[in-house]
Amino acid sequence: MLTMADGLARLGALAEDPVVRTLATAFADAGFEFAVVGGPVRDALLGRDTHDLDFTTDARPDDILRIVTPLSTAQWDIGREFGTIGARVRGEQVEITTHRADSYDGATRKPTVSFGDTIDGDLVRRDFTVNAMALRVPEVKLIDPTGGVEDLVAGRLRTPADPAISFGDDPLRMLRAARFSAQLGFDVEPATLAAIAELRDTLRIVSPERIQGELVRLMQTDDPVRGIRVLVETGLIDEFLPEIPALRLEVDEHHHHKDVYEHSLTALEQAIALERSRHPDAPADATLRLAVLLHDIGKPRTRKLESGGAVTFHHHDVVGARMARKRLQTLRFDKETTDVVATLIELHLRFFGYAEGAWTDSAVRRYVRDAGDQLERLHILTRADVTTRNRRKAARLAAAYDDIERRIAELSAQEELDAIRPELDGNDIQRILGIRPGREVGAAYKFLLDLRLDEGVIGPDAVEQRLREWWAARG
């Protein structure tokens, strides 16, 4: 739990960061205020690792550039019109922005940029109170005009201003609410949730690329399911990924099937656990997680109510792959990500034929061939897709997949061995030894294969010499 003593100690440590200290001293010497702002302050208070350093100052862009140039190995002013100067200081990339006091017209996300004179005025225009705190340096003073510390302690996401105004200024902040909820494990406070639900259609002024970026960041968090629930609860997800709420299929008293929406979220949680256990040092795999989230989106379109209470979803894998491809293209995902997600969805049912009866070696090879370089992701998706509460069925399916992975490994190892060839072929053997086709050629070939396996590649001259010595030794 966050305590004031812990928080002050962490802020003190942030102020002593070499990059922070270097810049703070330089700006103070030049007569300007300077502060670490936003995420780094929030994360320091929470005891989380701080990665990107953002700063704010009352200095104007020209002054910022003049101050940082002697301290940095590189500078860039692509954000100069917004008051932002970037630089590389002591090996770290930083951004320093003049206090802002922007206004919005409500028709686009582009603000009318104006520079402010106070840090408080800059902070109250930010997205959430927990991101609207600053650490003034070098004197180490916390600036918190909107109650961000209290919201950190409460685990609460709240906008600094009226949420209708905040989201009206920048609708992308609604998506960020879901992302920060997942990233921090915080609840979105009721008034903020209500504003998202009311203003969800304003997301339409946001470009698909921006929406895609926030969706990817959400999927990379430790608990994306938490954020997805926020999006579904408020209806915001209907504006850019309506296939997810469509998974909440109606169930009547005569036809029963599992809740596809809850199944998909459970599968996503299980996939993340598998991803971490199998690849603990790898970064979050947003592509895999998207495939798991979307793997059953073909079910609503393919559902058929059969007599006797059965429900079928024939070909939902193929239909879902097409739907996913179209949706990801609309969101401007790159071709590689789109192809991978569609392929995984199309293949995600293939394994269940194996569970029903052992495959031949050729069938296992075909499974590997069709998965290609996505085999590991397919392993995780297929395992995560088992969400049954029937322990016996779950154990049977897990054992079946253990078996198919074992067979894939064995066949792969055998095929690697099979691919190894001697450095000389049968024609070479006949030419060098002056013999005709027959058992002696086969014996020579086996000798050369053993030589290759034992000693690797030794070169054509050396291998010919060894072959002649072997032949002479046979008399």
From TrEMBL:
Question: InterPro entries from the xrefs?
Answer: HD/PDEase_dom (IPR003607), HD_domain (IPR006674), HDIG_dom (IPR006675), NT_sf (IPR043519), PolA_pol_head_dom (IPR002646), PolyA_RNA-bd (IPR032828), tRNA_adenylyltransferase (IPR014065), tRNA_CCA-adding_enzyme (IPR050124)
What SMART domains does this protein map onto?
HDc
- Quote one Gene Ontology molecular function term: ATP binding
List its EC numbers: 2.7.7.19
Q: Which SUPFAM superfamilies match?
A: Nucleotidyltransferase, Poly A polymerase C-terminal region-like
Return one Gene Ontology term, BP aspect.
tRNA processing
Q: What class of enzyme is it?
A: transferase
Q: Ranges for the HD domain?
A: 260-370
Named cofactor requirement(s): Mg(2+)
Which keywords does this chain's UniProt record carry? Answer: ATP-binding, Magnesium, Metal-binding, Nucleotide-binding, Nucleotidyltransferase, RNA repair, RNA-binding, Transferase, tRNA processing
User: One short Pfam family name for this protein?
Assistant: PolyA_pol
* Protein name from the UniProt record: Poly(A) polymerase
What species is given as this protein's source? Answer: Microbacterium pseudoresistens
